[in-house]
Write a structure and sequence with these properties.
By secondary structure, the chain is an alpha/beta fold. It is built from ten helices and eight strands.
Amino acid sequence: MKKIITTIVFVVFVLTGFAQVVATVCHTPSTEKFAMFASNKSFNSMHPSPIAYTHVSQAGGKMIKLKTSGVEANGYLLQAKTKTNNWIFVFQEWWGLNDYIKREAENLYNDLGNVNVLALDMYDGKVGTTREEAGKYMQEFKQDRGNEIVKGALAYVGKEAKVGTIGWCFGGGQSMQATLTAGSQAAACVIYYGMPEDNLDRLKTLNCDVLDIWPTQDKYINKDVTDKFEKNMAAAGKKLTIKPYDADHAFANPSNPKHNKDFTADAYKNTLEFFKARLK
């Protein structure tokens, strides 16, 4: 009898431990799920090292410091010529806040008109120039620090600011997280092949519409991920627009061999229209 009781206790212990492991996996934060891709050789091979490029701003873009609860954060600011409370927060690919992201920030600034644009440095000064560096930085990134950087940016722009967010790859997920952090100040969220939030309770707190630029050939932000996001957004009562493109991950990156110029132009057109309709 004693042996039977001992066996039962052992089985319960094992099953309880297994349940805890499953729960941990099932509730892995979206950012950490995406970071896991960096250990995948196939994912890394889709990101060739960026071609050397130096951005020279024609619109007065400059680096600024942002106060946070920890060390100061960095941002690349393009300030509207006429005062406005409309802001776009731009989030980097897995490389970091490099000159390509500064160029994209300036393109948005020029094409949207009277808007302030702030590209946030989520790696605190680190910029990857190789796949190995980028993968390392992305895996080292902590979402708590990312949230603090966004809070520092929100404090900088002020409580009256209406904030749109946009990002690519790693930054697509950060665009979603920043929108959740922004709360009632969130005005529009654009995700380019980034990991969406899959916690339904968090999605219920979302305060703006989302545009998801989705390449249907993406093996990582794939159909299962996208279908679940669509289902969760519907369950949360939030508006999601999915723009599918018959392309692969990072198709909008000009330095990627699978860059698709026509699809990139169309996605950008949809992005501008989405922001303009919501930042008035």
